Amino acid sequence: MKKTTQAQSNPFPYSDTNKRYHTYDYYLRNTFGGKCAKLPLDAGLTCPNIDGRCGRGGCIYCSDRGSGDFAPEAQLSIAEQIAQQKAAFAKKWDTTRCIAYFQAHTNTYAPLPILKNLFEAALDEEGIVGLNIATRADCLEDDTVAYLGELAERTILTVELGLQSSSDETARLINRGHTFAEFVEGYRKLRCASEKIQICVHLIFGLPGEDDARMLQSVRDVTALRPDQVKLHLLHVLRGTLLARLYKNGEYEPLEREHYVRLVADALELLPPETVIGRLTGDGAGDVLLAPEWSRKKTTVINDIDKLLFARNSWQGKRFLK
Description:
With 322 residues, this protein is α/β, with parallel strands linked by helices. The protein is 35% helix and 16% strand.
């Protein structure tokens, strides 16, 4: 008798593999008809907690690239960056479909004419089938939001909002510069602008001072908003950051791998099954990563999450309460 595979016995509806959560790969294949290469870009913008509008120094974990460590240099035009990234991705991705990912810093933190030039330049490039715009919920001016609503009529638009934690105390510790109430206000503005805007919320596990209950409360608070996508990140310690100083002084201890894997499985059980999981662990650039060392083995971490969900006979949304 032929043995049933994990994929065949998978109870999770938004999967055609052994994955018991709504993977970004599954979303891409069902949205665009196949794989897409996501091209990180640097628009040369900054953040309000860097330039003084609401703070200085940026978030305590951010490198000087503003989370855009895998993007080309901002001195290059958007067209040049896309060409460079396409050439790099062509070596490992057999696809002509690409998503322009404005990743570094806050990509709605500029006057609207500047933003239009950036985003339209990306859309003009051959093979670009969608835009991902990483930003903050407190940097969504009314005219910008109206433009994003219009963009969503012309392309698949995802706006990524960095929340990291719903705790205002944690927000102060990490120098985020805005409250959870302000985050919700910005989130609602996007929702009202267009139902076609895909909203992705970022959460980080392992932030200073947070225990499991606090981290999972952030998941519950985000779940109540019903985002289209969620990215779960591990907090990395990167050279040159304030977090690196805390780590070297013994004032911060990163999560262990088993702890992180368990937290992610717990979080997935709480999230709505329809919510796309854009990421389960972050990437720290190898030359600046101080800790945790185990995070370099990204595939191992993801495999451990898969194994734990299978061992629990669990899946995304199993404990989701409508």
